Amino acid sequence: MADTKVYRASTTAPVNIAVVKYWGKRDAKLNLPTNSSLSVTLSQSDLRTLTTASCSSTYTGDDSLLLNGEPSDVSGARTQACFRELRARRAALEAADAALPKLSTFPLKIVSENNFPTAAGLASSAAGFAALVQAIGNLYELPDSPSELSLIARQGSGSACRSLFGGYVAWRMGEKEDGSDSKADLVAPASHWPSMRALILVVSASKKGVSSTSGMQQTVATSGLFQQRISTVVPANMALMEDAIKNRNFPQFAEVTMRDSNSFHATCADTYPPIFYMNDVSKAAIRAVEAINAQAGKTVAAYTFDAGPNCVVYYQEEDAATVLGAFAPLLATAEGWKDGSVVNASVKLDEGIAGTIKEGVSRVIMTGVGEGPLKTDEFLVAEDGTPVKR
Amino acid sequence: MADTKVYRASTTAPVNIAVVKYWGKRDAKLNLPTNSSLSVTLSQSDLRTLTTASCSSTYTGDDSLLLNGEPSDVSGARTQACFRELRARRAALEAADAALPKLSTFPLKIVSENNFPTAAGLASSAAGFAALVQAIGNLYELPDSPSELSLIARQGSGSACRSLFGGYVAWRMGEKEDGSDSKADLVAPASHWPSMRALILVVSASKKGVSSTSGMQQTVATSGLFQQRISTVVPANMALMEDAIKNRNFPQFAEVTMRDSNSFHATCADTYPPIFYMNDVSKAAIRAVEAINAQAGKTVAAYTFDAGPNCVVYYQEEDAATVLGAFAPLLATAEGWKDGSVVNASVKLDEGIAGTIKEGVSRVIMTGVGEGPLKTDEFLVAEDGTPVKR
């Protein structure tokens, strides 16, 4: 009797925000970076991708992906690389055990959804590729560790490899030409330093900037300062950051986070033509964090910016009153502000800074460090193989 | 009979805008830079300081300076260093020729005026110290060359040394500990490449930023990328820039100008805490210059920014219609726009960029390459030693 079953597996995967930034590829095809990087995985209660991978001999046509309700192209080299690698691993299992169904030969039907709006301007590709790889890994019942799966996710989107773990995650750049040592590695689980919180200030950008994929390669090609970043600055920051995390040393964590963000954006500004991701609102957020630390008399907050104007402010739970208290007068009515989060407005921001932030921040996301991908019984593909209507 | 004469000498001195930037001191006391730099001297018809130096045995009290009608402190180490050095040279002349009046022993009374408003946010210290040193040099009838006088002006304000020459001027960083080889040097006179024009977009800054004196030392102390700039980037830019000037190669001049400005501001952004001189209006000006070059199909304009948000656009006279034509629809009614300068609005700027510039540029200065200090018979001190009322 033919196997007509629809095989399914679901996972969620988190967003991560780097504190030592990935910027630059030494091999664009394999997504091999010019430097190691390190990130904090954010809680999936607030930000996650849910992906169901399914396959069946009854499916016809090519592999497909439905993303946030819209068909998404999977013919790109990056997605194809993930499918190919995952199928090869499944095929090896099937070759070793004839009793296994030949899932590697079936078309894949994948359905994926984010729980946050694309309008938030958050890089969703990391969570997206991590969920894609983990879901198929689950579907294929691969024995691979998260670190091994991260090798595959990396080929989809570089920073996706870090979303295979929760907590504090390093992406080791590796040295090998085939990229087999360029993968994610757990520095510390979320439970090691569970008090880490993140306030994301979503800044309205008037226009989409340069994509990170093309931007980073322009930086590699044209910035006269970039070599110094990858050869000296980042290795030092990686060592300091791992040390800070191991010792739960927030001031050190914060300083390295801020310096590395500055260094990354400096190499963008040194790109020719220059790339500017931060705008005047972003800079007001930097000044706000500086004012909070100055008025608190100690370092209680750190800013970092990815390839866009949004500011991510890291702080510890015990300093929530101080940090959130400074922003509450401006942002308590903004979308996403969690009521009753605070309030102790002991820190007073300069009027110009406050006005710029109030006017320029369209919503906030209040979250914290969280876990890695979680297997779930929530399916976006029904038992008959059709997408679940939601 | 006692010598009761009031000795006077007047000079004007120009502003200069660097195309390879000075940023960082290796010796703060002597104003010795971490790298060489190169500037274009701007026409004194538009921007100049007029300074009269006078001295007399009848003057009582300390040396004094009246700047734009206000008494100005001359007790600072930098001004004192200039006075001391100039007096020492005069004293040497007097020692060699007993017939010379002993001007070196008389108090100095100096009166100085800029022909541009301080509100323009242009660094006036370069023109100011160049005029001060040249005026006293004239008063003392020193035989020193402009390059030798530049050694003294450098101690007043680093970039002032470049305002001792017209045209295209290098400040060679030198190697000696005493700074005796850190001085200005003529790369080419204005007559070599007289068609160089500058459009200065004066951008309203909401607040005074970090001063260049303290900012550059913060960069030296904290930027992880700075070493690469001074050891590699600037030496390469200096060589390319001198070559561009010698060959009147505008595209090369423009590219190095823009890249060096980007590199300088990148090291500011990499300073901890970061220094941002450019704002969203400055960035719109960068995008405008990029659009002008793209639409012209060749490089006809270059942007550069000093330690502030103002954009200086260099272009050649023959491209005035293209370059000014792009800005005319936005700025023809701005203060300082010279009527009938243009118009060929063949370049059309993006609406967002145009709107940001129109709203954020408060005035313009339209000028070009010009001559060095000029001796003048216009005196700001009367024959009786009193300041001239104007």
TrEMBL record, chains A, B:
One of its GO terms (molecular function) is ATP binding. Its EC number is 4.1.1.33. Gene3D superfamilies: 3.30.230.10, GHMP kinase, C-terminal domain. It catalyses: (R)-5-diphosphomevalonate + ATP = isopentenyl diphosphate + ADP + phosphate + CO2. GO terms for cellular component: cytosol. Signal peptide: none annotated. The keyword Protein biosynthesis does not apply. One of its GO terms (biological process) is sterol biosynthetic process. SUPFAM superfamilies: GHMP Kinase, C-terminal domain, Ribosomal protein S5 domain 2-like. Keywords: ATP-binding, Lipid biosynthesis, Lipid metabolism, Lyase, Nucleotide-binding, Steroid biosynthesis, Steroid metabolism, Sterol biosynthesis, Sterol metabolism. Residues 13-183 form the Diphosphomevalonate decarboxylase-like N-terminal domain. InterPro entries: GHMP_kinase_C_sf, Mev_decarb, Mev_diP_decarb, MVD-like_N, Mvd1_C, Ribosomal_Su5_D2-typ_SF, Ribsml_uS5_D2-typ_fold_subgr. It is an enzyme of class 4 (lyase). Residues 198-373 form the Mvd1 C-terminal domain. Pathway: Isoprenoid biosynthesis; isopentenyl diphosphate biosynthesis via mevalonate pathway; isopentenyl diphosphate from (R)-mevalonate: step 3/3. The keyword Translocase does not apply. Belongs to the diphosphomevalonate decarboxylase family. This is Diphosphomevalonate decarboxylase. It comes from Trichoderma harzianum CBS 226.95. The lineage of its organism: Eukaryota, Fungi, Dikarya, Ascomycota, Pezizomycotina.
